[in-house]
């Protein structure tokens, strides 16, 4: 197995040094603090500056953490706050509904599952945390699309992926579905990602009412829907109550 890469270790040390100080640091201060030659420290700082992880003050020539790195940190905190605020409500929703609960946020044109509560029975289930779901074919994704928390990338020449014969792939069908979600306040996918499965989802809002994620129930279509394929009202009510409770904890006004 290959060992650690020295240049990356040094770059990480520089970032920690800049993050731990109350002020900007000059090249000499960075080099002496870490026992590096000035030329080595300068080369690493220039590379970090190139990718916006470090910024250099034009007047003093000193360095500080850059906007790109701060954005990554903010994104991490946002996702973890969303997850931590949702844990108890997600557990309660699974217990009350008898179905699996997933929490999702947008990530690079997909939905990242950041929390998953198993259906409270003895059936074999697979943990979905870390899974990426398509925006257009999942209830979580369609809710994020409907409320402006995510956007679809321009389709390739082959168009959007059709996972089943029920998957919505045309702009007209997707726009119609998203309009319906905005009107109802929740969204569904019935056998659109895999035959025999269904899901419903509702938006989670943060400060100012912005949608920051979605919470959903998923399971076999006969458990989520009535014989005509319509989501059961009792489940949608439980789901929306949980979404509102998490939103209030995140600072959203009542809605």
TrEMBL record:
It comes from the Bacteria. SUPFAM superfamilies: GAF domain-like, Winged helix' DNA-binding domain. Residues 5-67 form the HTH iclR-type domain. Keywords: DNA-binding, Transcription, Transcription regulation. It holds the Pfam family IclR_C. Residues 68-252 form the IclR-ED domain. InterPro entries: GAF-like_dom_sf (IPR029016), HTH_MetabolicPath_Reg (IPR050707), Tscrpt_reg_IclR_C (IPR014757), Tscrpt_reg_IclR_N (IPR005471), WH-like_DNA-bd_sf (IPR036388), WH_DNA-bd_sf (IPR036390). This is IclR family transcriptional regulator. It comes from Streptomyces anandii.
């Amino acid at each position: 197995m290959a060992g650690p890469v020295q240049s990356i270790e040094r770059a990480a040390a520089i970032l920690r040094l800049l993050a731990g100080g109350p002020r900007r640091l000059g090249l000499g201060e960075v080099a002496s603090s870490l026992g590096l030659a000035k030329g080595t420290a300068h080369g690493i700082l220039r590379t970090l500056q190139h990718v916006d992880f470090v910024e250099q003050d034009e007047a003093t020539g000193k360095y500080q953490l850059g906007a790109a790195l701060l954005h990554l940190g903010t994104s991490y905190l946002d996702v973890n706050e969303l997850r931590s605020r949702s844990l108890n409500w997600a557990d309660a929703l699974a217990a009350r509904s008898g179905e699996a609960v997933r929490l999702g946020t947008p990530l690079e044109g997909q939905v990242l599952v950041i929390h998953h509560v198993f259906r409270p029975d003895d059936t074999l289930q697979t943990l979905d945390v870390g899974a990426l779901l398509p925006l257009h074919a999942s209830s979580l994704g369609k809710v994020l699309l409907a409320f402006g928390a995510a956007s679809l990338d321009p389709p390739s020449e082959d168009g959007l992926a059709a996972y089943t014969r029920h998957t919505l792939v045309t702009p007209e069908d997707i726009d119609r579905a998203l309009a319906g979600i905005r009107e109802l306040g929740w969204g569904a996918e019935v056998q659109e990602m895999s035959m025999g499965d269904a899901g419903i989802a509702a938006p989670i809002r943060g400060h100012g009412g912005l949608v920051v994620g979605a919470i959903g129930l998923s399971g076999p279509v006969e458990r989520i829907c009535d014989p005509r394929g319509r989501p059961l009202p009792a489940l949608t009510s439980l789901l929306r109550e949980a979404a509102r409770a998490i939103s209030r904890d995140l600072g959203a006004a009542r809605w």
